[in-house]
Design brief:
282 residues, alpha/beta, Rossmann fold
Amino acid sequence: MNASHVKEEKRHLLELSAAERVRILHQDIWIDYPQSKIVLKMIKNLVQSPRQLLAPCLLICGEGGVGKTSIIRQLKAQSRNWEEKIIYIALNNNPHNLHFRDLLLSAMSVPTAGRGRSKKIFPDELVQWIVFQNIRAIVIDELHDALVTLRNEQLKFLSLIKGLSGEPWQLSIIGVGTALAKNALMHDTQLARRYFIHDIPRWSESESFRQFLASLEENLPLRLPSQLYSEEVVKFLLSNSNGVMDNVVKLIRYGAINAITSGKELITVEGMRAAMRNPWNF
């Protein structure tokens, strides 16, 4: 069997049963692509720059499904061995409905008990803790979730993150969100000056999209080449996904499952159409 279309380290997967390969297809995989490389490089450069009186801040902006959270997941993996520490907060993962202040202190492993009567937003020792731990940035995923509130609560939150980027904290705020977050920042002149806004666009017909598809195909446990970068497949994917990363990956995943269960062993437009009608009927 010629397996040159699959990465060498993944060719052993082709020997597995159909059921085992379908199970593998349901697992998340990471594929580098131009937009992700740009974002990860920007964050690394920002975090590793010298401390400034007003820390530089960044907003990664894009609609749902374009790959923002996957990029942050990859950032977590890449930054583990950096000297500079990043704190991660996901505003959509707050089962106890904590205030942002308490979410932040919890993420920094700073106790919050017994501080209810204090008029200070943060404990005095937090500055020393930030310096000791070399904490340089806070990544706030789903930033827009903090802005779907009453205007008074929005202003409190925006004031808080504005303060964190200045003295004495000097923390870079890296927000990840939708256009709602961008619009909120743009309404505050001081915040707008501090933030560089980077938009993650949808996919379009381009060489970078074809390269992404080719890289993705190398990771699929299919015994025949699918040539996902072909003109027919590219046009089908873009027209049926609206260029949204999550939709593209789902079409390919379910097309690959169809390829295995049908015995064809390669993704076809017909197979993806069949999978679209009922992706779980395999």
